[in-house]
TrEMBL record:
It holds the Pfam family Cyt_bd_oxida_I. This is Cytochrome ubiquinol oxidase subunit I. The keyword Iron applies. Its main location: membrane. Belongs to the cytochrome ubiquinol oxidase subunit 1 family.
Length: 450
């Protein structure tokens, strides 16, 4: 029998891990759609317009499924963690309220955008999509501020176990908010860009190297490639913040059990009896990366009792996977950029497109690994240094049955999402003429390209 606390954490992990991928597409996909439509308006090329229309249909499907998984998460916050919401609800309620407003704005303008194809002038229709992009970014931003507060809680005082002197704005814009929100938004762009590009990379490898597939690949991959170097810089920023404000999490990320001066950076390895074995060590590198000083002292897990330490093996490997995938995507982006700059075209190498196929799933893996580091690395605290996860869980028995019931729901959502997207991908072009892409004609700027 799964203990109820473990079941609650597993259910939250399942819901969040599933939703975050769809949420990333909800943030990045609208930008791709509008960029394709803008190119169609600017050039008069109906190929860009058809690409935008097809992507808009996929966006509608992703948004609908994301609304379902997001609703599940909102209920779980209260049902699984009443201790958290009952004590700190007035502190973190503001970002959730604003996120709800952003969600409704996104839904309203997505409906307008989809319905208005061919009913509004092209430029007016393009402008109607801008609120979708802005609302998607705002929605992600405000949700992440609440999570950032759980990492570095501010904006209140505790007196006899009760919250007083609440400042919701100070809580929302805590010290973790800047780097964590930027890190998440860049991750959303990377996941969207590389995941969409991987679909077209498969098509190109199968011989569909026409203008439609190559431009779709180029646009999507460019989005991920632009975000990749910025993400590396922001990741370094976030690591410095963790070193300063969450030293236990940093020690778990690096599997550092004993406090060291001039600490080495350890890659890989296996945790055995409070010791990391078989790791590759780079002398003084951890001190240098964490504090810009190769001789700086880095606190180890020995500084806190064993019951206040996160599960080191999981956090360490998740961090290594996230960093390794991020650097690999950066290298692939550099390959793409160099060829585009020197030759003004896409790479010809089949190995590049094979790597691009892997880049989509790899970006998702890096995303999930990053959230494992963020959430599991904070354990056993649900609010860092203030409330233990065990004190926040619903005290009623039987929580494991909710986890069992939710599993088939996410299986069905996954199957339905993949099925519908595949049907959309295989559907003939909806331009009313069933033309080949190579037959697209250039139309005058402002004319309806249908």
């Amino acid at each position: 029998m799964i203990e109820d606390l473990v079941a609650a954490r597993m259910q939250m992990a399942l819901s969040l891990g599933w939703h975050i991928v769809v949420a990333c597409l909800g943030v990045g996909f609208p930008a791709l759609v509008l960029l394709a439509e803008w190119r169609g308006i600017r050039t008069g090329d109906r190929g860009w317009t058809l690409l935008a229309r097809r992507w808009a249909k996929a966006l509608a499907v992703v948004f609908a499924v994301g609304a379902v998984s997001g609703t599940i998460l909102s209920f779980e916050m209260g049902l699984l963690w009443p201790g958290l919401m009952g004590t700190y609800g007035e502190v973190i309620g503001l970002p959730f309220a604003i996120e709800g407003i952003a969600f409704f704005i996104e839904a309203i303008f997505l409906g307008i955008y989809l319905f208005a194809w061919g009913r509004l002038p092209p430029r007016a229709h393009l402008l109607s999509g801008i609120p979708i992009v802005l609302a998607g970014l705002a929605s992600a931003f405000f949700v992440v501020t609440a999570n950032a507060w759980m990492q570095q809680p501010e904006g209140f005082r505790l007196v006899d176990g009760r919250v007083v002197d609440v400042s919701p704005w100070e809580a929302m814009f805590n010290r973790a908010t800047p780097h964590q929100t930027v890190h998440m938004l860049l991750a959303a762009l990377m996941v969207t860009g590389f995941l969409v590009a991987s679909v077209y990379a498969v098509a190109i490898l199968r011989g569909k190297g026409d203008a439609y597939h190559r431009r779709a690949f180029a646009l999507a991959f460019s989005l991920g490639a632009v975000a990749a170097p910025a993400q590396v810089a922001v990741g370094d920023w976030a690591a410095h913040s963790v070193a300063e404000h969450q030293p236990v999490k940093l020690a778990a990320m690096e599997a550092l059990f004993r406090t060291e001066q001039g600490a080495a950076l350890r890659l890989g390895g296996i945790v055995v009896d409070d010791e990391l074995r078989y790791a590759v060590e780079i002398p003084n590198a951890l001190s240098l990366l964490a504090y810009w000083d190769p001789d700086a002292t880095v606190a180890g897990l020995e500084e806190v009792p064993p019951d206040l330490r996160p599960p080191v093996g999981i956090v360490h490997w998740a961090f290594d996977i996230m960093v390794a995938v991020g650097l690999a995507l950066l290298a692939l982006s550099a390959w793409f950029a160099v060829v585009a700059w020197r030759r003004r075209r896409l790479p010809d190498s089949s190995w590049f497109y094979r790597a691009a196929v892997v880049a989509g799933p790899a970006a998702v893996v890096a995303l999930e690994a990053g959230w494992v580091v963020t959430e599991v690395g904070r354990q056993p605290w649900i609010v860092y240094g203030q409330m233990l996860t065990a004190d926040a869980v619903n005290p009623m028995s039987g929580l494991r049955y909710g986890f069992y019931a939710l599993l088939p729901v996410y299986v069905l959502l996954t199957v339905a999402l993949i099925y519908v997207l595949r049907r959309l991908a295989r559907a003939p072009f909806d331009d009313g003429a069933a033309r080949r892409v190579s037959d697209y004609r250039v139309v005058p700027d402002g004319e309806d390209p249908r």
